[in-house]
Amino acid sequence: MASTSPESAAATETDGSIQIRRLELADHERGFVSLLSQLSSCPDLTASEFAARFTELAAHGDDHVILVAEDSSAQERRILATGCLFVERKFLRGGGKVGHVEDVVIDATARGKGLGLRVVRRLVEIAREAGCYKVILDCTPELRAYYAKCGFVEKGVQMAVYF
Ligand SMILES: CC(=O)SCCNC(=O)CCNC(=O)[C@H](O)C(C)(C)COP(=O)(O)OP(=O)(O)OC[C@H]1O[C@@H](n2cnc3c(N)ncnc32)[C@H](O)[C@@H]1OP(=O)(O)O
Hints:
Elements: E1 13-15, E2 18-22, H1 32-36, H2 47-58, E3 64-71, E4 79-89, H3 92-95, E5 97-106, H4 115-129, E6 132-136, H5 144-149
Parallel strand pairs: 5-6
Antiparallel strand pairs: 1-2, 2-3, 3-4, 4-5
The structure holds acetyl coenzyme *A.
Residues 38-39, 101-106, 111-117, 137, 139, 142-143, 145-146, 149 line the site of acetyl coenzyme *A.
């Protein structure tokens, strides 16, 4: 999750100049919130609002992992991609765990280069390492092919109540 603790799941992965790592508090200054606005409504947060939510999520430790990607060769540090894994602890299946992938978004300038695939595959690996027996997500029909490339198969029906 949003933690820099050395005990937390080792999420860092580097391929070329793109590094995938866990969210840091300083990512507020690196465009993390505006990147999320490419996915859904995401008004800017003040530094203290961001820090409050970061701290709240960090309390979940490895049950809430937010990955980000940045280009280490770029002059300005900007977040190019993100994705989240939430681990749900159940009584079912002998106290099994389910991974939920949420809030996957790649900056418009960085799409079509395999970064989305890398972020989601890393989230799935982390879920497997955490002992989850499955990983699930909700998406629009247009994204079926993308998530199929990430290893997902279609299962069930998505239902929602919006407030
Ligand atoms: C659970 C959720 O969060 S659902 C929300 C997902 N996020 C969004 O819709 C936000 C806006 N979109 C994006 O951020 C990006 O376009 C993403 C995340 C959908 C894809 O990220 P990208 O980095 O562009 O994908 P990437 O380059 O890794 O593509 C991997 C493969 O999926 C395919 N693919 C990517 N996007 C799509 C798409 N929209 N439809 C069909 N196939 C796709 C690519 O062609 C590629 O296939 P290939 O390996 O055969 O060439």
